[in-house]
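Ticket reopened. Same input as before:
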Amino acid sequence: MTLTLDDWLDAAQTNAERRQLPALGPLLTALADATRALREAEWNHHAASRPAPETPQPDDTPTT
Amino acid sequence: MTPLPPEPALRRLAAAIEVGEVSVREVVEAALHRIATRDATLNAFTVVLDESARLAAARADAEIAVGRYRGPLHGIPISVKDLIDVVGVPTTAASRVTDRSPADADAPVVARLRSAGAILIGKCNLHEFAFGTTGEDSAFGPTRHPVDTTRSPGGSSSGSAVSVAGGMVTASVGTDTGGSIRIPAAACGLVGLKPTFGELSCDGIVPLAPSLDHVGPLTRCVADARIMFAAMRGTTTAADTTTPPARRLGCPRPYFLDQLDDEVRAVFEQALERLGDAAWAVSTSPIRHASDTATVCLHLVLPEAAAAHASSLERQGEAYTEGVRVRLELGRYVLAEDYVRAQRGRAVLAQAVDEALADHDALVLPSLAIPAPRLGIDTVELGLGGRPVSVRNVMLRLTQLFNATGHPAVSIPCGQTASGLPVGLQLVGRRSCTEQLLAVAEACEQVLAPEA
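Engineering reply: fixed in the latest deploy. New output:
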């Protein structure tokens, strides 16, 4: 099983709804976008000792 | 808009006190009178400590009478952000969440300022728990800009800035986790200093994000900031021992000048021209990976703030203002692995700032991308036909990098818009070289000050 950002976002949205915090919904979506950018940062690829992809693949969601 | 009359800068007032031209009692009574007449509109103070200030003034006058003059802060009226402990006074953080019991002791920075002779006049309003850039979300209501009361003075140290810009005290103390000293300083036409990370103790200060939190002064001029900074460090204001600047500034144009209000851009470019006319060499010096700033900072501040507030969110979540609560809650969802990635980004960015500083006295950039925003708005448009951008994001855009990297940064006034709203210029120095940065700022201030 993988844990993708989309999996994380789904779980977080569900949790926020259950906790009756609807205002969190759009912020979680924005956070997911920011987290995706963080994981795709050039220096994170370098630090992980693997090359940065030439072109980001839309469905190549970072996994743990 | 009615600009308030300027109050004497700290040094001039100190000279008058030292020679007995004015008593500390008279200075303190004048400050209390100005607060009484102005603060009902501006809302800069959460509490005015009139009784203790009068007692301290009497002691200060008695000391001068027997020849014990403590130095340039002796008898100077100051304020502190109500996030900072003052013995015997509740620290509210402008929130309904805190327990409102009196603090057991002064925060070290407050104790040092008192030891240097400063008179604490009151504690100042802020954006709740310092988690915001406008000062609007506060249990005490919003602080208002002294030039235009329909506008925010910037935050989160909103009350601290207005207490000085509104002429009610001579200097103030704020905190800065993403720009909360420099943003209101820029918006209000003041000098705001964020020292090197760790240089001033944050003990006795309610944390927001401990690896990003800084404390520092807000003043009318750089020389006053130097006096406050020295006292807050517990050092004396000895003669300046820094080497004269080489008059070389680096401007990190990519990213930092990409999203600016048109008037802010024009004032900033004019400031660079004036510096050039005064024999300063200003060259472009990009900061690598600067476009990753917001992403890295977000993944640092959110989890740290959530950790600081986790138990309060569970116990009293509904007592927070809605905007602050939802951002704190957001931090509880950041994964640990992404916090670690952001720490890696912080190190990369710190090295990039060091590289950009090479061969320069300091980096120079605007402090705040927009003039003081109107209260109650969430977005602004930059330029004609520009798409709306988040007020919060655009206000943090130029300052937060240096909280993550720990470099010292100071905002100084560099002009104003057509409607009289101040514009700030930010200078960034080498880590652990805050004094040298202040020397650069003072030299630039001499070029950029209105009377220059």
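The longest strand of chain B covers residues 409-416. Confidence is low (pLDDT under 50) at residues 1-6 of chain B. Please confirm and we'll close it.
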